Amino acid sequence: MVSSTLFAAFLPLLGFVLAQDGSITGPTSSAAAAGYSCDATKCKLPDCNCASTDPPGGLKPEDTPMFVVFTADDAVQSYTLDAVNQFLAQRKNPNGCQPKMTYYTSLNFTNYTLVTDWYVAGNEIADHTMTHVGTPPENEVSGNLVALNQLAGIPLKSIQGFRAPFLNYSVDTLKMLASLGFTYDSSSSASVPVTDDDTDAFWPYSLDYGMANDCLAVEGLCKGEPKLPGFWELPMYALFDNRGVDGPHLMDPWLDAANGETAVNDTATLEYLKSTFTAHYNGKRQPLGLYTHPIHVSRSVPGTTVTNSTINMINAFLDWAQEQPNTWIVSSIQLLEWVRNPVPISQLDSFAPLKCSTPSVDSSLKICNGIPQNENGLLAHCAFPDFPFYTCYGCPQEPPSPAQPAPPQATESGGQTRFRLAANCSTPFWDPIKGECICNSATCAFTDQSRPIGPNGANLTGDQVSSTGDGTDASATSNPYVPFNGNGAAPLASLPAGLWAATVVGVVGALAGAYGAVARF
Ligand SMILES: [Zn+2]
């Protein structure tokens, strides 16, 4: 059973949970509500940073790059990656590398092999729960780690970030993330323009001294809580139309009517994307975010309603932003790496986290490794009726679920099972069919790190999740799975009645997201 105190703690928030859809209509914090104080003489980079509107490390704004964080949420499918690619694939950052982004991944309707490919191409894969539930129980969050490791070959240490479905999170969610070895959350809102005196547009900060965002929106947050040393918050920066603080836009702003009008107007949207960017750029260079649900800007999904005008407007904004000197399009983790080690503009070209990241694997090799030219013809097709998917790592007997995120592998007709990612090999160098690592040099050497997601509080690495011992045994997955600090998974029938409602809303939300309904999460 998941701790009943955890459930009890967020039941009072249920009314808020059900009302919240990830959009904001006004300030979610204030200086008084934040009650924030941080001792900058004790809180030092790289592991501690006070919530501040000033650039990190004492940099002057003119020495600070302008970051545009690009994120996507929900299931990963070919049409969602096509949607992202229409904005990023043709671009280059100032160092000549293609921009990378963060995909906050939920697993219903996700095609695992595309997650592998997206990760190996240098993008960040982050956690958005398994079945898309707000204020999630622990097995929704840790199960996402396990399933992405098992079926997409993402090393556990590479999944560092989390965004709550519907942006619904609680104090307990943040504590849980820290306990599961996450580095950051990005679910909160910066809801007051940078040009207002009481702006809450803080640079990413650690929670050593508690939260300073969403103090009016999430019960028990702020006034020094929760104190989570070394755990970071990346606020989501709202955009503001000509109503200023009364006209905020957060996710998928191109779906909103601007300036109090009743219909979407791409020209008006472009106007405030630019004006908000300019306010940040000419001020203290707080990052800007483009927080997308790719399904809403996909031109290949059945029933799509997005217009060419909207697609062209988003690209026009990015074209314009990239014309402003020292503007970089980045993933959440790239932004955080820079905040923790804030080198000035003059040194950015040699800053490792922003460098191009193409693994050097011989293109003639036949190896199922997340590189399309290598893995062609090697994918396993897992023909589950609700959401069939492909994977390099062998089909599970059943789709992963919070109760069993690592189902035993189904044996193929030839009798061969595949080897899941070893803890001492990185994804592009691991051959899951032969069960061997093709890395022979220091440049590709890799070791995953363990995380506290195992039975009875054990720290597990990826290959321990799927095996009983030697790390690469493909057939030894336990069933039933014994997950998560020995607490096991809560049988759904035993959930309190209120949680059923939250669960149902989450599932409906995931379905709506996957099929392009107008509601946004
Ligand atoms: Zn979502």
TrEMBL record:
<feature type="signal peptide">
    <location>
        <begin position="1"/>
        <end position="19"/>
    </location>
</feature>
<keyword id="KW-0472">Membrane</keyword>
<feature type="transmembrane region" description="Helical">
    <location>
        <begin position="497"/>
        <end position="518"/>
    </location>
</feature>
<keyword id="KW-0732">Signal</keyword>
<keyword id="KW-1133">Transmembrane helix</keyword>
<keyword id="KW-0812">Transmembrane</keyword>
<dbReference type="InterPro" id="IPR052740">
    <property type="entry name" value="CE4"/>
</dbReference>
<protein>
    <recommendedName>
        <fullName>NodB homology domain-containing protein</fullName>
    </recommendedName>
</protein>
<dbReference type="GO" id="GO:0005975">
    <property type="term" value="P:carbohydrate metabolic process"/>
</dbReference>
<dbReference type="InterPro" id="IPR011330">
    <property type="entry name" value="Glyco_hydro/deAcase_b/a-brl"/>
</dbReference>
<feature type="region of interest" description="Disordered">
    <location>
        <begin position="455"/>
        <end position="474"/>
    </location>
</feature>
<feature type="compositionally biased region" description="Polar residues">
    <location>
        <begin position="458"/>
        <end position="474"/>
    </location>
</feature>
